[in-house]
Fold this protein.
Amino acid sequence: MPRSADVQTQRIIQDNWRRVTDQIAAACASVQRDPGQVQIVGVSKYVDAALTAQLVQAGCTNIGENRPQVLWEKFAYFQQQNLAMPRWHLIGHLQRNKVRRTLPIVDAIQAVDSLRLADELSSEAVKLGKTIPFLIDINLTQDDSKTGMRREELLEHLDRWTNLPNLQWTGLMAMSSLNASPESALEEFHQVREFRDSLQQMLGDRAELKELSMGMSGDYVQAIQAGSTCVRIGSSLWEGILT
Ligand SMILES: *Cc1c(COP(=O)(O)O)cnc(C)c1O
């Protein structure tokens, strides 16, 4: 059980945020990358809305939730408490019947995993008059425990992905395999990047796939080495909170 939010947790979260941003800056420096090109999405799925608000207060302005319903609840809390809104990223699977309530409050959908979902998102986005960036959740390994689309599945209807009104396909999201060693995580992230590069070649100016969302608390170093533009950090930010 996480602790409840108080003055002490605020200080712990501030320290964690500083440590994580320092570590990510160091990982960027070690491969001569500009830390400004690696966005940090703080993953708040382990904690309640009040602790999430303390992370935002500490300076983390991009928040990722993997469950749509929890995202709705946290959004409502921020509104009720009149708190500065972070940018919300949905990083987990979205069911089509939850699109309507989710779309108005998120800034990006990171884990689109089917054209059926993309079609639904597109038609709701048109109704809303909002254009929303999204990433495709891709699974290039043989790991069935992971979500995400297969390479062939995506290539089959490649043209359709670039023709979705009010949706903007900006890149790929991926996870390394469960229990992957640092070496194999690095290799997997390289494969994702190479796949993105080949997609970009095929698509030319029909899309700009500039985002690679990869890297979590345990493998962000390898992800940054392989070219990640967005790391999704959960557990490291909640050290000392989840006791
Ligand atoms: C939980 C989660 C993360 C964060 O993982 P940590 O190992 O806690 O940093 C990142 N991405 C997704 C999709 C998640 O579900």
Q: What stands out?
A: Residues 43, 45, 66, 91-92, 216-218, 232-235 surround pyridoxal-5'-phosphate (CB under 6 Å). The CA atoms of residues 114 and 153 lie 9 Å apart. The chain is about 40% helix and 15% strand. The two ends are 6 Å apart (CA to CA).
